[in-house]
């Protein structure tokens, strides 16, 4: 979620990971009605078509919407990436994307990046970036590519603040975008006493305090909710400001540890490899169904 013209987007963002295909169209429609103008999807969420339909049916001018998608690992490498991006553009019923990210730091990311650079130069992609690239990989990528990433989408929330990564991202003029801006509520974040006490001062919820903290740090947020009343709640964060003391208290909550898993854990890398292989074999056996 972000204010108009505040960052890479033109409006406020709703992320739609873990939203089922059936629910997706309704969620995007609700979000657009509430006022969100930025939608974050991905090839691996299998809902680009539903997002495209919801945007088309909304009647909102495409130029008003900031549309992000992400290339999945099996589409890495130059040729595959280029082909898959054009498929995403078609599924999303548009002729350009505002932002395309490389979803994970595995496989032929450099080949894929060359495809994104070309599509960016051709105007099919208005911005290009990476996701889940830890500080060392992000700095490497910024130095060994012709066009450096404009965004790095990373797990970021009060318990995993990405302070070092943000310093380096700022140095390279790469915008940090928070996935799981609430840490999906893990480790009791929505019930956290520090956040509650801060929220009480302003008549705001812990969710609103977290979003406001991200925004004041200059971090782009893409909160996800399937509930319209929560979408409204998450949208209403531009009528108050946290003071320095509030920001310092939240800063101290950092454990610099993922609430999910580490992309640097070799067992997790193998898990991703297995997932890609499984999806590929499902794809090969059901090619005629055109599920991809
Ligand atoms: N690049 C990546 O690898 C990556 C990974 C994960 C996610 N993402 C993107 O980031 C987006 C957000 O991340 P996320 O969905 O993992 O986590 P999140 O936004 O931190 O948390 C979503 C959870 O919080 C709940 N919630 C939302 N607003 C609330 C509120 N005001 N009060 C109480 N509960 C609330 C939602 O429940 P309900 O839906 O039931 O309301 C859902 O369970 C995703 O949708 C996706 O677009 C990217």
Return the CATH class of the largest domain: Alpha Beta
Task: Kindly state the number of beta strands.
Answer: 8
Low-confidence stretches: 1-11
Report the total helices: 11
CATH topology description of the largest domain: TIM Barrel
| Helicity range | 40-55%
Calculate Rg over CA atoms: 19 Å
Gap between N and C termini, in Å? 28 Å
Listing every helix as H and every strand as E from the N terminus to the C terminus, the arrangement reads EHEHEHEHEHEHEHHEHHH
Look at the structure and give the mean pLDDT.
92
Tell me the strand order in the biggest sheet: 1-2-3-4-5-6-7-8
Structurally, the number of domains stands at: 2
Ions and ligands:
NADP nicotinamide-adenine-dinucleotide phosphate
Write the layout of secondary structure elements.
Layout: E1 12-15, H1 21-34, E2 36-40, H2 48-58, E3 66-71, H3 78-91, E4 99-102, H4 109-122, E5 128-131, H5 135-143, E6 151-155, H6 163-171, E7 175-179, H7 193-202, H8 206-217, E8 220-221, H9 228-235, H10 244-251, H11 266-285
Helix pairs in contact: 1-2, 1-9, 3-4, 7-8
The structure holds NADP nicotinamide-adenine-dinucleotide phosphate (NAP).
Task: Put the structure in a nutshell.
By secondary structure, the protein is an alpha/beta fold. The chain has 11 helices and 8 strands.
Describe the structure using short key phrases.
single chain, 292 residues, alpha/beta, 11 helices, disordered N terminus, binds NADP nicotinamide-adenine-dinucleotide phosphate
What does this protein look like?
Strands 1-2-3-4-5-6-7-8 form an eight-stranded parallel beta sheet. About 45% of the residues lie in helices and about 10% in strands. The protein is of the alpha/beta class. It folds into two domains: about 250 residues, TIM Barrel; about 30 residues.
């Amino acid at each position: 979620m972000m204010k108009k013209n505040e960052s890479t987007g033109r409006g406020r963002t709703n992320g739609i990971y873990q939203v089922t295909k059936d629910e997706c169209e309704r969620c995007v429609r609700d979000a657009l009605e509430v006022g969100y103008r930025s939608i974050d999807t991905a090839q691996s969420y299998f809902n680009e078509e539903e997002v495209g339909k919801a945007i088309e049916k909304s009647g909102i001018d495409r130029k008003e919407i900031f549309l992000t998608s992400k290339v999945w690992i099996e589409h890495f490498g130059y040729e595959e990436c280029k082909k898959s991006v054009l498929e995403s553009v078609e599924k999303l019923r548009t002729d350009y994307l505002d932002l395309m990210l490389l979803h994970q730091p595995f496989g032929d990311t450099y080949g894929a990046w060359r495809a994104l650079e070309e599509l960016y130069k051709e105007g099919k992609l208005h911005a290009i970036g990476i996701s889940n690239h830890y500080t060392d990989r992000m700095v490497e990528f910024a130095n060994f590519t012709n066009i450096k990433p404009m965004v790095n989408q990373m797990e970021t929330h009060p318990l995993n603040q990405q302070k070092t990564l943000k310093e380096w991202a700022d140095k390279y003029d790469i915008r940090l975008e928070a996935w799981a801006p609430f840490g999906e509520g893990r480790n009791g974040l929505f019930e956290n006493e520090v956040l509650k006490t801060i929220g009480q001062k302003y008549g705001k919820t812990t969710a609103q305090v977290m979003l406001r903290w991200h925004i004041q740090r200059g971090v782009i947020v893409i909160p996800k909710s399937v509930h319209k009343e929560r979408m409204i709640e998450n949208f209403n964060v531009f009528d108050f400001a946290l003071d320095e003391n509030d920001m310092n208290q939240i800063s101290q909550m950092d454990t610099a540890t993922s609430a999910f898993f580490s992309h640097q854990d070799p067992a997790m890398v193998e898990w991703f490899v297995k997932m890609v292989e499984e999806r590929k074999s499902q794809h090969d056996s059901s090619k005629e169904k055109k599920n991809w």
